[in-house]
């Protein structure tokens, strides 16, 4: 297979999370009744946040809070809180992720970064890491009709980067939502990585084609799968 595109998730896959999503979420819901830190409502909500990692954050707040104005306000607070953490230097790449991305580019793949964060949050992370010129495309839920677990971001990357066959796409993420998104898009490789919250059992249940210790293993996997000359 002539691999053309790698769609890589950000937090937990190429970017270390270190619990930042949960910290920002805690700030975001602090103003909401019934979500005081340590309360039963908060504990139920944080479990839901963990279960829906990788999905559009505004959709998560809509599911938790119901009313659109409350969800929008909480999402805005989340973005501000996460951006504050980014500016404070708490966002770092997964060890070796940048080298892995460069290795994928050397193999001829275009690189798209995808996320469940809003555009402002994604941009803040890219700027903090200096990754603007490292990748070909960065997509967030507002760029497409639907975020993960739907295939829209992967398919948007296919169209924008001129990929000729969805089977030549590699999708990598740290949550079942990433796996569902890649499978629904028809990607040839849909791999889970163990640098986030999900484990081998979760990825197997979601239907991942491969499970990697980290994104660092992806270039080696593609090299091993390359056809050998006769």
TrEMBL record:
Transmembrane segments: none
Record Gene3D superfamilies: HAD superfamily/HAD-like (3.40.50.1000)
InterPro entries linked to this entry: HAD-like_hydrolase_sf, HAD-like_sf, HAD-SF_hydro_IA, HAD_sf, PhnX-like
Species annotation: Pendulispora brunnea
Signal sequence segment: none
Parts forming coiled coils: none
Record-given protein name: Phosphonatase-like hydrolase
Pfam families (UniProt xref): Hydrolase (PF00702)
Recorded superkingdom: Bacteria
């Amino acid at each position: 297979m002539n691999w053309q595109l790698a769609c890589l998730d950000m937090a937990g896959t190429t970017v270390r999370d270190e619990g930042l999503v949960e910290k920002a979420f805690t700030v975001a819901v602090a103003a909401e009744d019934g979500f005081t830190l340590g309360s039963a409502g908060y504990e139920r909500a944080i479990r839901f946040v963990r279960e829906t990692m990788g999905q559009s954050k505004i959709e998560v707040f809509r599911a938790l809070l119901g009313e659109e104005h409350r969800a929008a306000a909480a999402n805005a607070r989340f973005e501000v809180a996460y951006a504050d953490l980014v500016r404070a230097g708490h966002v770092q790449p997964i060890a070796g992720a940048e080298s892995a991305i460069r290795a994928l580019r050397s193999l001829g793949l275009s690189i798209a970064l995808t996320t469940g964060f809003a555009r402002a949050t994604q941009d803040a992370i890219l700027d903090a890491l200096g990754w603007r010129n490292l990748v070909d495309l960065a997509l967030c839920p507002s760029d497409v009709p639907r975020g993960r677990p739907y295939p829209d971001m992967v398919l948007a990357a296919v169209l924008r980067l001129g990929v000729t066959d969805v089977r030549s796409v590699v999708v990598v993420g740290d949550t079942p939502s990433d796996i569902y998104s890649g499978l629904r898009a028809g990607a040839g490789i849909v791999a889970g990585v163990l640098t986030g919250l999900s484990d081998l059992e979760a990825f197997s249940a979601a239907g991942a084609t491969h499970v990697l210790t980290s994104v660092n293993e992806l270039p080696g996997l593609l090299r091993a799968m390359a056809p050998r000359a006769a």
